[in-house]
Every structure is written in structure tokens, then in C-alpha cells.
Amino acid sequence: MEAGAHLSRACSPLSISHCRNTISISIHCPLSARAAVEHNNERNSRNKPAKTSTTRTKTGHVQTSTTGTRTGHLNGASNRPKLNSEISPHRAVSAVRLMRIELGGAFADLLNEQGKGSGDNEMGYVERTIGFRTRKLDDRDLRLVTEIVGGTTRWRRYLDHLILSLCHDESTFRNMEPLLLQILRIGFYEIVKLEMPAYAVVDENVKLAKAALRLGAGNMVNALLRKLVVLKESNSLPVPKVGGDNRQQARALAIIHSHPVWMVRRWISYIGYEEAVKLMTWNNTDPCFSIRANIGKGFTRADLVTELETLKVPYELSEHLDDFVRIRTGMQVIKQAGLLEKGLCSVQDESAGLVVKIVDPKPGESIIDCCAAPGGKTLFMASCLNGQGSICAIDINKGRLRILEETAKKHEVDHIVTTLNADLCALVNHDDMKADKVLLDAPCSGLGVLSKRADLRWNRRSEDMEQLTNLQDALLDSASTLVKPGGVLVYSTCSIDPQENEERIAAFLLRHQEYRVDSVDKYVSSSFVTVGGFYSSNPVKHSLDGAFAARLLRSS
Q1: How many CB atoms lie within 10 A of CB 286?
Q2: 494 is catalytic
Q3: Is the separation of the CB atoms in 238 and 165 below 8 Å?
């Protein structure tokens, strides 16, 4: 979590709080308010009757209806049997997860709920939302949930285009209740993108709609999915034509590649039409993940490879970092084997690892990580110190700092890492708090990690960029005061947007002439080095998350 205070826009339904690498945007509306109330009351009032429940239509209109409980049960679901073994468990869980994501749930956290005991947790959410449980999730179900939730979120705009095209009229789609829409999205995704057997997809999603909602909902799912199957088999799915002026082209591309129109237009402006299409294609591919061996605990990459081979998890050695390997499948197996829990390794993208290489932590140095939680870079830097030196991890979120402290113990670097729960901007001019090196991994739009964080594309607005850059400027100014004379300041983001990257450094250097750029070419390979001497990882070019870093030297 980044240091800094919660930001809110006056007289606006939108608020921003900044977290490590990204910001979290909340839209304050009747639906999300209801979700928050129900989430907070779940433990205390599961059996209390409620007068009404609120549903938002696709146009933002609000409908209220009488329900049996406050827990989200639909249409008298609390009166149904608690176990329904006929319903596909992965589809029920996926529908509920997608509901939670649209109501403000953390996408990454939801996708990571795959550890021990998560099956019971999932069924608890399902029962509280639709009123019954299915059979327990097995490993195959969990993998399908991850695939369906990630894919359906990623392809949301395209799927909605198909659903709208097959509805009798636009109002049918616009007024569709949220759970029904999620079930349809799942079915459309399974048929169009996963190419699952059509008969099974239709049958299972119809069952879910009938059980969770009502007979009429099941009939609608049946009709629309069967229409879709006919169109797909005849290769006549409705696809918008890319033509007309720039705005019309962007709208068509936004549907075809399932991105917001403003992002498409922005990327075409910055990198051109062809590169923008390549980037969107990358964002829609299944991500691979990188794992870092914890050398600070004496666990080398060779040891990690031995473990992966024993577990029969396919891997590739990183071309850029000696302690990293890449995997596309098998994360669940690694978790169940306890490698993460024991602190032997961490999940960390190579783009983030390269930022640590640019910091270049050396034994005996003092380092401040200004916006530290959840602590991936902090722990990597600590492992590089060989037990000598210190890292102060600052963050405004006390809960996430606590997690960092616990992880530092597992990694056996807690004697090096100390934490400070504080607002970075409140630490300005603290003469007793100076370090040899300071890392500011700033809150950003996250436009470089849309492959892994499929939900981010739907949680960003073009008008938020100005507020973000103002925050980045303020944090950079504050971080610069913590660097000793002759020391190093590294500014990094997980964004590929010049406004958050090169433009922020240019503005900073105008305000702080005591700093100058130190080219990163001594720390990373030339393919990552920009003309200005900065680090930039390109998702399409490097097959990594998009990231940026600038290494700045303070005069003596």
C-alpha cells in the first residue's frame, strides 16, 4: 500500500485511495452501498429479516424489492435446500465472484483465494448470495473458476456486445438483474472463448439461473445461449466494423478487444494503431507468473527448479533475472506444497524484480521503501543485503504492513526490515530519517498490468489521470527529502503511460535541480533502456508486465 492519505473528489461519486502500484477507485452508488452494508452485516445479521434489497440496472437505475434476508439471497432463496448437488460448483462460484468484483471486491484477492480451505469459504459466499451450496470445489473446479472469472472480466465489453445483440430490445439488456447478467456472461464466454461443449454450457447455466433466480430466468438463458450457438456454428457472430473517423474506429476496437474507448484512443495517440492493437491483444492473453527464489533464506533458483520438477510444474528460466522462473500453470500446486507459506519463494513479476536491480541494494546500506506494502520489492531488496544493512518500509495501511511483517519473518529478513505506519507526505524534513537509497514505487493507473489485473480496465477513467499525477508529484517531492546527499532516489510505476512516467520525472527535475538522471544501463539490459536513460518494460516486446523506473542521483 502506498503512503499517503485517502483522496476524494468533492461533490463526486468517485473516490480514490492509493495502493502500491495502483489506485483503488470506488463508485459510491446505491448498489455498492448496499453491498458494503451487507458485507459488514454478514457476520452479525445473517438471520435478520430485511425490508428491501436494491438492484442496479445496467443504466444505473435502482430497483427495490422485498427479500427474505439482508444477506443477498434472491427470490426466497433462503427457503431452498442448503445443498444443491445438481448445480455446477465452478459456475456458481464464478457468478458470485463476478458479482463481488462488480460490487467493489479486490480482483487479485479473489483470484488468489485458492489456498487450503478456500472451498468452504467460497461456498459460504455462494450460500449467502444465492441461498444454497453446491458440492465442494475440487482442484479442477478452482482452476476453472480462475479461468472463467479472469476471462469473463477481461472480455466483459465484448460479451455484453454479444448479449445485447441477441436480446429482443436494448431495454431487456439494460434492465437485466446483475446475477442473471453474470450467468449469461459466463455462458457466452464458455462458448465463444473457451469453446466448451455447447450442450453442457447451455444445460448447466440454465440450471444455475433457474435455481438461483427463477424459471423465467432459466428460459432466457436457454434462449440466448442457443441463439449464440447457432451464430457461432455459422461463423456469423456480430462484430462491429472498424471504419469511419478516429472516434468510430476506437469504439469498434474497444468492443472487439474489450477495452474502454478512452484507453484505446489514448494508446493509438501515443503508440499508433498497430501497436495499440498488439497491446490490447496482449492484455487479453492468459498471463504467466514469475516466481522468485528467496536467496536470503539460502534457497536458490536451482533449489526452486528441483521443487518444481518434483511437483511436475512446467517452468522456464528467466532470461533477465538469476533468481526468477516463469510458470503458466501449477500455481495451485505450488501453494499446496507450502513453498510460499514457508517463505522459500515469492510470486513477483520480473518487471518488479528489475526495479530492485535498478535500486541496486548493497550490504550495509540503509534503504527506505516509501510505499512498501504488500512488500514484494522490500523483501527482494532485503534478500540482497546478506544480513547487513537496514530497510525501513513505510506505508499508510496498517493492516497490509502487518502482513509485510509476517512475510518478512517467513523470509527470515525481519531483523533487517522495520516498518513505519505513516503518511509519506507527513515525513517531510525529518532530518533524523535519511537513507542511502530511497524507492518510491508510486500509486499509478496500473495500465501496464492489465493482463493480470483484468478488472483495472473497467475501474479507470481518463479524468482520473490528472489527480493521479498530482499525487505522484507530491509523493516524489516527499520521498526526495529522505535521500542523503550523494544518495539515490528511484521512482517506479507499473504503468506504460508517459504522463505518469517520463513527464513526472521531467517536472520533478525542474523543481529539484539537486537531482540528475543516472542512466539505468548499468543495471538492466539495453532492451529495457529508453533514450532518456530510464527503465521501461514493454508487455508486447518483453512479455512482461509494463513498468517504468527512473534512477536519480542527489548531489553531494
Answers
A1: 13
A2: yes
A3: yes
